[in-house]
């Protein structure tokens, strides 16, 4: 009997191998000579997919390093061609071709899995309505995107957001000012506080993350399980916590909108709500759509704040220069408060302009740590840059990490150089900086993120000393690259640090100053 089973298994195995090999030869795609060079894999069709599963976004860097001269290459992934853009020189050409190289098919494909809604249901109909903008600049996706960009562009609405976020962060930093210092797990300390402060800047005083205990961990459960939910492999079993988290967020958002709290929220939430309502979405659907906003608001800013602090504190010369720069800039004012204590106020309206080193160091964190790809679907045969033929119904990826390793960044592109962006010419490399994506998927939160992070970092570095709590010196933590929604990934594990108020400002008060018309306050 055992022998019989062995021979059946062997026969099945042989059959699978024969079918696989025949299909490789029978259905091998034919490539046009003008298509980007194809990088073969010893396991046809699925070899590159296995590589991606194993190495994540790093897989593109591995392939690119092995094929240095290629500005763009083709991977056969199952039955699809995937074109990988590896050179900054081609990025602008991709972004210029917005109709032919479109992000929208990915929204249609991914949204049902991210939101857990039927592919052909009502909610998807609302989302897909004129999604490509072919009939004009209207529809849920178009108008929401336009509204978010406008609400978060420099101006009074953004000032309100910054004021809300940073006023709360300032009170959290007060917690760290303890006699004798405080030991904390740095990322674990940052995460809940950044979550409350940034969501308050969107949702206003009725912020569900403040009023509903446990909502924050529900969101991180969802974020943790998102890969499984998107892959759709038995998600109800393998992503149980993510499902429950998503449901919990939806219910909290239903209550938020039900109370009418969005009317006291910031412009960006009003736009999101009003546009969705205009296109017939129910409160329950609008609540679910908020999950997309939350991913944008929460997943990248906190790790960026964490890594910026780690890079600065682990380099005493850089830390010293940044402190000197802020002190010399005039962005820090010191006055006596009524109770006789000194009060330090960081003016966020001049900080970024007058302190190029802190901004450069922050931008370099983003350059070095960006790990996301911009996705585009090839809608029609397209000749990119008059040179490379991209075939209809293929996928085109622009991996940020690859573009950030382009030779335009110089021979030390893989190193952290906090002074890189001090040089004027570094800031004028077309297509080379992908920290915010670009074109159709340009991050609308980039100004908000920059001000919240740079200002919060400025307050921490001026006010506190920080060192690893074990006294053994700084060791760069590893990165958790499993987060599918993140462009800047969090640390794997955490770093326990000892935070101590600096001798020269012990016991002093600290705050931020905001734009003039909001009444200077802190
Ligand atoms: C350091 C912080 C941040 C980083 C590094 C970052 C990065 C990115 C990147 C790379 C993309 C484009 C992805 C692609 O090309 O497919 C993106 C898109 C987006 N980001 Fe950000 N982001 C940050 C903060 C924020 C904040 C604070 C918000 C909201 C308040 C936000 C909202 C969004 C949204 C809504 C999109 C989607 C845009 C679209 O597809 O139309 N982001 N972000």
UniProtKB/TrEMBL annotation:
Pfam families: p450 (PF00067). Its cofactor is heme. Keywords: Iron, Membrane, Metal-binding, Transmembrane, Transmembrane helix. The chain crosses the membrane at residues 6-27. The keyword Membrane applies. InterPro entries: CYP450_monoxygenase_sec-met (IPR053007), Cyt_P450 (IPR001128), Cyt_P450_E_grp-IV (IPR002403), Cyt_P450_sf (IPR036396). Belongs to the cytochrome P450 family. This is Cytochrome P450. It comes from Lepraria finkii.
């Amino acid at each position: 009997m055992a022998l019989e089973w062995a021979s059946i298994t062997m026969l099945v195995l042989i059959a699978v191998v024969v079918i696989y090999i025949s299909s490789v030869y029978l259905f091998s795609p034919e490539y046009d000579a003008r298509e980007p060079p194809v990088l073969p894999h010893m396991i046809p069709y699925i070899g590159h997919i296995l590589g991606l599963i194993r190495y994540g976004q790093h897989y593109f860097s591995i392939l690119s390093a092995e094929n240095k001269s290629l500005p763009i290459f083709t991977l056969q992934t199952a039955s699809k061609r995937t074109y990988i853009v590896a050179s900054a020189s081609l990025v602008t050409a991709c972004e210029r071709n917005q109709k032919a190289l479109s992000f929208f098919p990915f929204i249609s494909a991914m949204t049902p899995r991210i939101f857990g809604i039927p592919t052909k249901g009502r909610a998807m109909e609302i989302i897909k309505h004129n999604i490509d903008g072919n009939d004009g600049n209207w529809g849920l996706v178009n108008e929401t995107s336009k509204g978010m960009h406008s609400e978060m562009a420099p101006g009074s609405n953004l000032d309100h957001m910054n004021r809300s976020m940073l006023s709360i962060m300032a009170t959290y930093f007060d917690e760290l000012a303890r006699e004798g210092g405080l030991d904390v797990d740095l990322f674990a300390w940052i995460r809940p506080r950044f979550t409350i402060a940034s969501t308050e800047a969107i949702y206003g005083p009725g912020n569900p993350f403040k009023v509903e205990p446990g909502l924050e961990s529900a969101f991180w459960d969802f974020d943790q399980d998102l890969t499984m939910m998107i892959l759709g492999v038995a998600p109800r079993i393998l992503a149980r916590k993510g499902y429950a988290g998503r449901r919990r967020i939806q219910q909290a958002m239903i209550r938020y909108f039900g109370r009418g709290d969005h009317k006291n929220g910031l412009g960006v939430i009003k736009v999101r709500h009003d546009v969705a309502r205009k296109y017939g979405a129910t409160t329950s659907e609008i609540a679910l759509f908020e999950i997309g906003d939350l991913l944008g608001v929460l997943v990248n800013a906190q790790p960026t704040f964490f890594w910026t602090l780690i890079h600065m504190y682990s380099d005493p010369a850089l830390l010293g220069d940044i402190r000197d720069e802020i002190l010399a800039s005039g962005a820090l004012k010191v006055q006596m408060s009524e109770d006789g204590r000194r009060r330090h106020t960081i003016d966020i309206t001049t900080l970024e302009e007058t302190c190029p080193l802190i901004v450069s160091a922050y931008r370099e964190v983003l350059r070095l740590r960006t790990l996301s790809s911009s996705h585009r679907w090839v809608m029609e045969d397209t000749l990119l840059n008059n040179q490379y033929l991209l075939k209809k119904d293929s996928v085109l990826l622009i991996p940020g990490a690859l573009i950030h390793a382009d030779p335009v960044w110089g021979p030390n592109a893989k190193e952290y150089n906090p002074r890189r962006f001090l040089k004027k010419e570094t800031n004028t490399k077309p297509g080379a900086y992908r920290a915010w994506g670009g074109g159709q998927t340009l991050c609308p939160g980039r100004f908000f993120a920059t001000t919240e992070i740079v200002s919060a970092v400025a307050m921490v570095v001026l006010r506190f000393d920080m060192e690893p709590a074990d006294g053994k010196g700084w060791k760069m933590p590893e990165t958790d690259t499993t987060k599918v929604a993140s462009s800047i990934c969090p640390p794997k594990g955490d770093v326990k640090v000892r935070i101590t108020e600096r001798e020269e400002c012990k016991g002093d008060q600290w705050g931020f100053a905001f734009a003039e018309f909001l009444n200077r306050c802190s």
